Amino acid sequence: MLNGIGVPGIILLVILALLLFGPNKLPELGRAVGRTFREFKDGAREIIGEDDEASRKKDPTQTLAAANEPQTAAPAASQNTAESKRLPE
């Protein structure tokens, strides 16, 4: 994403941000951006959790059939799928 900017480009962006917003406004803007990303990540986790719950409630016959089968490697498989659905922190 930022591969083509380089160090001089980043320095230029920082100077431009200082000139536009001033040194007093930059910390406030940083906090606002951080809160926005945190709320987005929490909302995305909530949506993923709702989808998982809905799929579990949607087809109870599969859960009954799976409960009757012997479990050999099922706990490891379910743990891997749960970890793959987590959002990066």
Offer a few descriptive terms:
single chain, 89 residues, mainly alpha, 3 helices, 82% helix, elongated
Could you walk me through the main structural features you see in this protein, from its secondary elements to its overall organization?
By secondary structure, the chain is mainly α. Helix content is 82%, strand content 0%.
Write the layout of secondary structure elements.
Layout: H1 6-58, H2 60-68, H3 74-84
Main pleated-sheet profile: none
Count up the helices. Answer: 3
Uncertain regions: pLDDT < 50 for 5+ in a row?
Answer: none
β-strand number: 0
Ends distance? 18 Å
Shape annotation: elongated
Strand percentage lies at under 5%
* C-alpha Rg (nearest Å): 23 Å
What is the SS-derived class? mainly alpha
What is the element string, with H for helices and E for strands? HHH
* Average predicted local confidence, pLDDT: 76
Helix content: over 70%
Brief characterization of the structure:
This protein has 89 residues and is mostly helical. The protein contains three helices and no strands.
